Amino acid sequence: MEPKETATPLSVRTAIFPVAGLGTRFLPATKATPKELLPVLDRPLIQFAIDEARAAGIERMIFVSHPTKSAIERYVTHDADLDAQLCAKGKHELAQRLKDSALDTKQIDVRFVMQDEPLGLGHAVLCAADDALPGPVAVVLPDDLILGEIGCLSEMIEAYQKGGAGHMVATMQVEQDAVKSYGILSVTGRDENVLWADGMVEKPEPADAPSRQAVVGRYVLDGSIFDDLRDQEPGAGGEIQLTDAISRATPRVGLSGFRFSGQRYDCGSKEGMLRAILAYAGASPEFREVLSEHKASLFAAE
Where is the Nucleotidyl transferase domain (predicted)? Predict the structure, then answer.
């Protein structure tokens, strides 16, 4: 499917963060700590997602959470009491760091809505419908950590503003035997980093996959996605699947993939989290000695 002739899209002003999941793959660590607050060294996963959205100029951030995960709300907003305690102990630099990482509700509209039941990613996005600003919306999955000089969401929004597709998904090329773990884009053409598509196939067998372009956790979606999700029948696992609603709307609004420049880490898995920690540490001179020691010990063990 070639790009549609459309008017210049409205600005992407809303970002939705689905954070209601239980994080069962990280139990027992996530028994009391939400998986989104698990640290990549000293920086929680959700902080990377917030900073990425903030850099992209997002005006309203909607966190679709669960009643048992109140720690997320405490983390993302400024804690005046903690700030006062740190300042009273003379730790002004640390207090400022915490203030800088928190969301300033005078500059960004922060909202929390609850997803009481695990009814799928599509349902989580639909929970934010009443709070989203008019126009297209971004969806950011904090589990998918994407590290790069330019934030993935900033890159996507810039490409999206050029028009042509109502729905845009972040994609990366994976090995042939890995396609069965992803939604795979059916690619019909390419324009630099934008891949035009006529649909998606959810977790195909390698022999049946239309491409090796896997969809990962960043989306810029036409505002009509909410109406489509309201009408969407449950799919795999009896859940409302976001990819099903996107695929169904493709003939009407268009679909594209975006090949981002950063490196993606699947921090919903232990292996991916470890890779992210090592990569993040490797980029800081502070940890080079520790990593060198670890590398030496591994060679010695062999």
Answer: 20-278
Taking residues 103-125, what's their average pLDDT? Answer: 91
**263-266 vs 213-221, strand pairing mode:** unpaired
Per-residue model confidence as pLDDT tens digits over 67-80: 999 999 999 988 88
Choose among 110, 243, 255, 132: nearest CA to 196. 255
Which segments within 79-212 are labelled E, that is strand? 109-114, 137-140, 144-147, 167-173, 183-191, 194-202
pLDDT digits (tens, 9 = 90+) for 136-183: 999 999 999 999 999 999 999 999 998 877 899 999 999 999 999 998
> Would you identify the CATH topology of the domain 14-268?
Spore Coat Polysaccharide Biosynthesis Protein SpsA; Chain A (3.90.550)
Query: Could you tell me which residues come within 8 angstroms of residue 189 by beta carbon, excluding any fewer than 6 positions away?
Result: 2, 195, 196
Per-domain boundaries in the chain: 14-268
Length of the chain: 302
Tokens of 253: 């609004």
Structure tokens at 145: 């950590």
- Conformation bin of residue 77: beta by default, left when phi > 0, alpha when psi is -120 to 50: beta
Closest CA to 140 of 232, 254, 250, 54: 54
Distance (Å, whole) CA 195 – CA 171: 9
Cut 0.85: pTM above it: yes
